[in-house]
Amino acid sequence: MFLITPVDNNRWVYAMHGLEKPMDHVSAGSVMAGSVATLAILWMSLQTMGLLGHSHSISTYKLPESLQNYLASYTVLSGLPSNYGSEAIVDTGRFQNRRFPKIDGTTLNNSIAFAQMLIDRMSTLENNIANAGVELKTRSPAEKQFWNSYPSADAVDRSIDAIVAMKASSYLVHQNCRRFGLDKNDCARYISTLGLRDTPLGKSCAAVHSIECDEKSKYRSIDGTCNNIENPSWGSAMTAYTRVLFSQYFDGIQEPRRVGHSKKPLPSPRLVSATLSIANNQSDASRTLAVMEWSQFIAHDMAHTPVRKMISTRKPISCCQSDGDSLSPRHVHPDCAPISVPDHDPVYGDHYVRCMNYVRSLPVLRSECTFGPVEQMNQASHFLDGSTIYGSTPKKSRELRTFEDGHLRIDMRNNHTYLPRGETELTSQCGENCYNSGDDRVNVHPQLAAIHTVWHREHNRVADKLARLNPEWSDEILFQETRRIVIAEIQHITYKEWLPILLGRRYTRAIGLIGNSYSHNYNSDDEPAVSNEAATAALRFLNSLMQEKLSMPDNFRQQNKTLQLAEHFFNPRIIETEEVFDGLLRGLATQTSQKMDINLISDMTSKLYASDVNNLGLDAVSLDIARGRDHGLPSYNYYRRYCGLPAARTFDDFLDYIPMEMMRKLRTIYSHPNDVDLIVGGMAERPADDGMIGPTFRCLIYEQFSRSRRTDRFFYDSATQPHPFTSEQLAQLRNVTLARIFCDNGNNITHMQFNVFLKPQAGNELRRCTDFEAIPSVDLFAWAERAKAYR
């Protein structure tokens, strides 16, 4: 299983068989040296000493390549002394001849019994909190944040086993590792080799993997199951994110990072945000707000991180008093990680707000069915599969369909079709203004509601045309064929139009993400799960691009109206107002985005989810920093090294990609370069080459989208899917642009430029939507065929 090669006489590099070749711009050493070595040495040591019986091996399930890399991701910073950096940076030779505690099946079962006892006692604490009147205030920013991360009932049910495993893992660390001299991170890696199979959690974990599949099915499942035939749960909804680097928790298992390299407390997320993020109103020279909105639409398609609820009552958790003060310690729920607000905060200080609500993310059992550090749940399917339109569960999909003519449900307003009204559980947040879509976050702001509506209409438009071409097709065939086409359109726009703008065209060409023929790179050995780093940090760059005043020009791009973003959080049905829907779509294609940096508009840093523009809300940057620590993401410096940049020994070493002024600010609030949060360092970087983002986020986003493509058995241009598109159909799908989607699905959009991600200018001029040479369309006649072929 392992290839072992001596390096420098005293270090070892272990390369797991089949591990993917590192990216060209990342040296093999930076990805593999030491990272795979740790798990390899640890695993072989455990096997040699006989401490792991067969029943407690990593699992009976095949480990994906990305998971092999994750489980082994101690990162060695070459040339640094062995004690440099945080505790996760180690000399790989330290595990040789190391003694490990013997943990047998009885000990594992005892740990789970202890964890279950703790959970059973939770009801007393939660009842005390409820009796004290500690709850989220209705329609407050904190409650809106809860709805933005709303956990479904099924997700909460699935998380209970993960909570038991998490508490049991903490018990094992405390009871078995210290006397053997294992620090918390070493012990966490050891614990992650102990399987759940012969414990009370074994059956439920195995059940997730026990799925029957029809490998010849033409259509992908709604929830992502059976995409990988050998491992049918991979990439499915309500499973764990994967990781690029091994997690770093304060206790090795589940407590958020709160102490830095020098053993000093990490700065409050709000202090970091208030110090670094200053609204400067600098716009990008040429990229439009469509880049921001497509980034959000795609991020929501691939990732949805739900928050925890009270275990006994299933009610939302409040971590602060409704007036912004801190709670009494006896009323703080264990799942709280409130963000402290400094007394002299430039915005919140005068309003005596000292506490910002943050509830920890929902956990899920580790995909390899072991004890070990907690993993967070992705409530959406991990594939780029239109789940924002169709949902990620069969129940949600059925809820959205009419079951006639392949259509999705609609409401008619002012002679135009819009998304149907939200279900009962949503109406407490928006009143009657909530929409029902594949993703409930459709309701967060009007631009997001507009992009959802466009694709909802696109589905029904395509279904109508297919029905006319193939009148004998059933509702099910019409729905599935339409869904397949719409997903292909989303994938093509993402990889052909959006990624080149984001990463830079030269970079995209160099790594081969754009092709003009069938692809043959499907890899069933690698896991398609979205990385925690991409979902929690890298894709959050989109917040930097948002504008506070949303332009709504007419068809000739003359400015006529604007919307204030902060006035319309959770007011999505404003798009039904006269001219707002088309105005927002034209604005997305015309108004340039904010410049990509760590300076965000105040609507995002102090007015997020506020009731109106004059009220205080939450701070998106603080929430993102807190979430990164909650998820155990290592700091920015480790990802620099992973992505081929030199690890910073001093803050001055950040100057290769971080401006001088920003570097000086980082130095004032962080004690050491290894303390800088990933989201902070990534957003502080200058854009690399001709792309929009810096090298670290570019690296992590590339890692995600290249892996998403090669691990999706149903990717639209794949020749290895069960029923590939015909060459004629594939050629037609490659005509699609977001400009054509806007033209075809607006209320009355008459003009659009070919590339809506770039503002109208020379070479990208406005053209009539009826000019199909300038803005091509997908000719659905390529799908016309006799119905008997489907009988």
UniProtKB/TrEMBL annotation:
Pfam families: An_peroxidase. Keywords: Heme, Iron, Metal-binding, Oxidoreductase, Peroxidase, Secreted, Signal. It is found in: Secreted. The keyword Transferase does not apply. Its main location: secreted. The keyword Electron transport does not apply. Gene3D superfamilies: Haem peroxidase domain superfamily, animal type. GO terms for biological process: cellular process involved in reproduction in multicellular organism; response to oxidative stress. GO terms for cellular component: extracellular region. One of its GO terms (molecular function) is heme binding. PANTHER family: GH11385P, OXIDASE/PEROXIDASE. This is Peroxidase. It comes from Atta cephalotes (Leafcutter ant). The lineage of its organism: Eukaryota, Metazoa, Ecdysozoa, Arthropoda, Hexapoda.
